[in-house]
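Final report, closing paragraph on structural work. Over the funding period we assembled a curated collection of sequence-structure pairs, and we close with a single example.
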Amino acid sequence: NKGISITDGTTKKEIQDKTGLSIVKITNTLNSFIYEGLVEHGLKIKQSKTYVLTEKGLKELLKSKGMLKNE
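Its predicted structure, as stored:
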């Protein structure tokens, strides 16, 4: 469950490996998600920033998967 806990965030490289998206696209998307309060910075792994879902981000993800009713 990477990206859920601040101590186990995910890096841009890990996202790229799973999605095949460009680093530029991932960076732009993460910046938008941070602005919207869906994602925040986690702890650094060596020199790499990590990212984690916020509580709001997790709720939105679960709603989009049909696992949480709209509030």
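Residues 6 and 42 are 5 Å apart (CA to CA). The longest helix spans residues 23-36. We thank the funder for supporting this effort.
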